[in-house]
Amino acid sequence: MLTPRTSRSRDIRPLDGLWTFALDHEAGSRPWEAPLAVTRQAPVPASYNDVFTDPGVRDHVGVAWYQRVIDVPATWAGQRIVLRVDAATHAGTVYVDDHRVAGHQGGYTPFEADVTSLVTPGGRARVTIAVDNRLTSATIPPGTVTVDDNGRSRQVYRHDFFNYAGLPRSVRLYTTPIRHLTDITVHTAAADERTATVAYTVGTSGEPDGVAVRLRDEAGAVVATAQGATGELHVARPRLWRPGAPYLYVLEARYGDDGDTYELPVGIRTVEVRGQEFLINGEPFYFTGFGKHEDSAIRGKGHDDALMVHDFELMRWIGANSFRTSHYPYAEEWLDYADRHGIVVIDETAAVGLHLNMAAGRLGYATRPTFSPDAMNDATRDAHAQAIRELIARDKNHPSVVMWCIANEPASAEQGAREYFEPLVALTRGLDDTRPVTFANQGDARYDTDRIADLFDVVCLNRYFGWYADTGDLGAAEAHLEEELRGWAAAYDKPIVFTEYGVDTLSGLHSVLPGPWSEEYQIDFLEMYHRVFDRIPAVTGEQIWNFADFQTTSGVHRVDGNKKGVFTRDRRPKSVARVLKERWTAMRAARAQSGHS
Fold this sequence. Notes:
Immunoglobulin-like, 32 strands, globular, GH
């Protein structure tokens, strides 16, 4: 599935804006067959939960309906017309007038439908989209729906961020020729400074005769050409895509002399794991940056270009070179921007919450097997596999994406974990053998108890010594952190990337004697971790949890959300930001001086 782009043969009509919006009990039995009988409107793209003042909307569990009437340009006559939804959290069903045209499970990847036979150029059509936010053991992420004593549905989920729902990304109508390109896959390899290879495969709607490709540099000059739906382009004196110094070629595919054309940005670079080093273009790379969330006030997980650019600017200012798309695929605009600006991405599926017992001891409830027929089962794994397929299909061509993370904090020390994950790792490698595969390991699974780490290429660790363990005692936390890190380094000849470490910090809370929640404690905590990292050569990256404070479900353990951000939710820096800026800027200067990424 190609991301919609305009070209000589393709056009796009955005459908973003205000849509009529109704909850399922307001919409009637077959709401796609007539205009919704409500006056409420909801913005697209945006999560709907925080837009309105009605708690019944914020806490709604079930289906919500979006509807609008669209105009189809008369100039589109003779073209193939496609309706695309970039995301519907967590499942979407699309109707055009009275016809169901598409259905999709999974809240963070796109789906689309050919509606050519259902719309008339120069005419109008009614588009209705049903969005279902319910999570079960057959969804990724998983969850459970219960019914309380008042008959209200309640969603139980195990991820520590708010279950925002709706249409958080764009909806678009676009055209292609009837005979059109369907997909492009590129793999790049740099043999040496004198030559590089771009291997490509082009998918077509019919026989692939007449496919031609050419590669242009940033000045627009053609540097390589080829004929056929599969082949190789050889680039003399290539400019490589490098972290902090990106270079993007453009691959133009053409289907027939006057047929469909599509332009794909291409970054030539290689990724490799060698022992305990992570290499980009054959040079050691050290990750600095954050786990993030698509999260902001009012819009929830709704994509916003201004907010995105500001977040990237803050990462540049602080010296970060990377981020993880915790805990789901982000809007593709994020990856386009990372490609263009040289930021490295660990790309993650929405497989979070695959651990029933993470807080059992701390909260005092009984444990039960995570991987079992009545919990994470074959249906869960099937949904997980589909999430991996769709992630790689969407993001495979982005040079900024250097690693696939197929799960966050699963119960990897429990029986059944290996049987669950081994086929998923094999699937990931079968779909893309050019990038390392990882998962983010949670603290219950140590180097001597984890059952699956050997299946993966990179050890990614989420640890909270000094917060959830050794709370307030950084001396003990430092000893325990170093002991475990040395254990991982000795047990596995793999790079170690810290993908989560941090403390809740209330902006403006200061203390002469640093204690939990104060800004001083956040500084001391992170400096302690960095001392340990610097003593362990196997550590090849540090991504702090979190970039910015974010919203979570209501509860006594979270007051207005998670406060582990280096920035507040409205992107104001806490005191630790300048400490990090000093460290990461110095590290970047030292790497540049040594010739490393």
